[in-house]
Amino acid sequence: MAAMDLGITDTLAPLLKDVRAMVRDEIAPLDAEYLAEVPKGDRWAFTPRQTEILEGLKSKARSRGLWNFWLTDSDRGRGLTTVEYAYLAEEMGRSHLAAEVFNCNAPDTGNMEVFERYGTDEMKARWLEPLLNGEIRSAYLMTEPDVASSDATNISLSCVRDGDDYVLNGEKWWATGSGDPRCAVYIVMVKTGGDDQPKHKRHSMIVVPADAPGIEKLRPMTVYGHDDAPHGHYHIRFTDVRVPAENMLLGEGRGFEIAQGRLGPGRIHHCMRALGQAELALELLVDRAEVREAFGKPLSQLGDMYDQIANSRMEIEQARLLCLKAAWMMDQGDARAAAPWISQVKVVAPLVALEVTDRAVQVHGAAGISQDTPLARQWTNLRTLRLADGPDAVHRRQVARAELKKRGRNTA
Ligand SMILES: Cc1cc2nc3c(=O)[nH]c(=O)nc-3n(C[C@H](O)[C@H](O)[C@H](O)COP(=O)(O)OP(=O)(O)OC[C@H]3O[C@@H](n4cnc5c(N)ncnc54)[C@H](O)[C@@H]3O)c2cc1C
After folding, report:
1. Which value does ipTM take for this structure?
2. Which one of 149, 228, 397 would you pick to mutate in the ligand 1 pocket, going by the greatest count of ligand atoms within 8 A of its CB?
């Protein structure tokens, strides 16, 4: 096995410095203004000021070469490893807008990865190029309201061949990014095979233009009461939606193969962004505990605050090392061997970040759950991350099965 180097390389160091400075000095200071613009007028359109903020920051990032870092295994990217990219993702986690400013945001990175690895030349020209340029956005539609979607073998949206087309019928929900007026394309997990086929060969992924006739955006799903406009997570109905047969990715029955390639790196990116949020929460916690006084003392000297601060630091460090190890496993090129490591960190990082954020909320008193700090929004996002891209229990199952297999047990 190769030596495990999880450190900051010479390639990464200048990029990390530039990304850190841009997030701190130029992006994070505009987060609150950008978010406050949303309720004005149509929630599913960008206000002129939002466009100015977002596009202005994107063009600065691009002109500085701080763009599409996530393309780790491709000659089109910056040639970074997953470990190197993980450090950058952590910095991006500290701001609401940062990931998109560097064109490194979910779900577009995962979708671009699919087009890059499995798309035809036509798909690359029509969808990948504008996505890489940050001109359009995309959504990934797997989860369905009527089936337990954490077990993707349950996915049932029907996709039937009819002449030169496929015809899709069914419903999806929690399609993150589908509310965005720039969202032009969906990658949709569908059922193409019958129950006579092996369980993991019954599903496929197909590319559907977001404006295809027969698509109805039924309602935005809310996250603890927030619709996350203008990004959103829509509930979508497909009624006789017709797409050309060449929109099928790789071929019928290969959906699981693609899902594996799509979800691995994205999960690590989510986890490192979560740890960026944990670091921010710890900074805010310490700053608040130092300046706020109660019962004649700074909060930092009351109760178990030292333990809370120390535990937060230790938990973040453990989670970061686990995340970097999972990233390093990905870089070894064996997705199957990396899978249990990705599952471990997908459980650990959101839990740690959520706990540290919760401690910071408490130290801020009522202000902690208000709009006056990023903590309340951050807590909500982190709580949802324990469901999105697979609930904790499903990842624990993966980890446990890997352990049992090591001991020769049958886990089928
Ligand atoms: C904010 C947000 C954004 C999302 N974005 C997207 C998106 O862009 N695209 C998309 O397709 N989906 C998206 N999702 C959906 C998400 O991926 C699913 O909610 C998730 O996979 C779980 O599926 P489910 O909701 O059907 O839960 P179910 O499958 O019904 O599972 C419910 C619960 O059952 C338990 N459970 C399941 N399996 C096991 C097990 N093996 N052992 C023990 N307990 C178990 C767990 O507690 C689990 O939470 C998003 C969700 C959220 C909240």
Report:
1. 0.99
2. 149
